[in-house]
């Protein structure tokens, strides 16, 4: 049987992540993992905080903390909010772990041994006012390709072009803002991407099923020709370089960060070595299907640099089977910004609404083929129509009517007929579409199918009108309400990858035991699973509607004005 390894791009350690970070990697990876578990698959979902590199040093400096203490605090802060969002990591690690240090050095030694590392003397920016060399992200300036004036020295986040600090126009120190800079020579180590180019190209070509965004970015890099890439930095915080003459340097964060996927799995394994084997997932693992999730700015590293690193080791490490890339989630057409209080960040979001509101909305507008734009008006429309008006309304009126007419047990009476056959067929089609979409990493398409599934129940109960039937044919009314109560079970199971907290509320209301909550999507179609006489409760209102005055206040509060 195939086992499924799932990773989402490592969130960087400095500061709370915004909703775009959530929908661009971690949330769809969680939905996919939850869906596979619902299907009975063997799944391992791994993530971690990315803790090395210059932004961590800068952020720690700004807060008056040493880097280790800063990372300890931020790791726990991020982990807590991810748990509150229901992200079902099997393990959430740290790239600063001893396991990642050990594995990074192992990968490097093999690359060096195999002739894919070369030494070069390069010109590096030195800041007189800071009295230090300024590696990549310590330098900010104008991107020579798109003109973005806040580009970092390693990559322009606006156009995703990889850069060297010396490429920037009007460069200045990210530490002090000083423009008193000069280029000085320094020896560094480079990964020979050029020597591995043909192998990487063959590997990319073997994955024609990747989404267009992933393919296009990989092809762009390959068509431009791969060049050796510097993998060391003049820093003290990071993985030390195990090579004579380079003891005072550390590895570039983008060299060690992808290795942390393996490192975090080893952290997970080391926590219970008798019951877990990390190598079975990562080494000679022919039965593993490996899915990666990330935003488009991470695609060059995951389609080119990281695969080249793995190929260059000449060891049989697991490589990606599928790379799901996402475009940006914008905020009223612009970028989310902590400093400008523009847009909503994950901790703020949970103060406004419970996690399932956000999970449902974000997957519905996931930026798969193009950028998506967050607006409070759109959030309100989706919540009010789909969550409150379709799912919540169906559950509430079904269970309340059943209690008022038949008490707190599933009613008995009536005989299954053509109306119920038609309902079952429609539900079967929608669940089939839902499953196929999630298997194929088509999240927005999956949400359309899920909404269709919810709609079938409302159409059925409206057409059958049990509130009228109960006066003329109580047995028939009992059949309709029993079928609808079973539909609530169907919805709880089918919706659990998207809105897991709501599903748990419905499981509790239907008094389903642990085993019943593990039913597969195929079992979810049993519209007679809850037998007559079974007790249930009416849960609190599942979703409240968002009012116009509330939306206006939120828009004003987070406008950045």
Task: Write structural notes for this entry.
The chain has 561 residues and is an alpha/beta fold. 48% of the residues lie in helices and 14% in strands. It contains 20 helices and 16 strands. It has helices spanning 19-38, 54-62, 67-84, 98-113, 193-205, 212-224, 253-256, 259-270, 279-282, 299-313, 346-352, 355-364, 376-406, 418-439, 443-464, 466-472, 474-495, 500-509, 521-524, 548-557, and strands at residues 3-8, 42-49, 91-94, 117-127, 132-133, 139-142, 151-152, 169-173, 181-191, 229-230, 232-233, 250-251, 288-295, 322-326, 329-331, 372-374. The protein has a five-stranded parallel beta sheet with strand order 3-2-1-13-14, sandwiched between helices. A four-stranded antiparallel beta sheet has the order 5-4-9-10. Strands 7-6-8 form a three-stranded antiparallel beta sheet, with no helix packed on it.
Describe the global form: elongated
Average pLDDT works out at: 95
Q: Report the portion of residues in β strands.
A: 5-15%
- State the separation between the terminal residues, measured CA to CA: 54 Å
Number of distinct helices: 20
Describe the sheet with the most strands: 5 strands, parallel
What assembly state would you assign to the polypeptide chains in this entry? Answer: single chain
Neighbour order of strands in the largest sheet: 3-2-1-13-14
Portion in helices: 40-55%
Number of strands: 16
Pairing-aware structural class of the strands and helices? alpha/beta
Write down the Rg. Answer: 26 Å
Low-pLDDT residue intervals, each spanning 5 or more residues: none
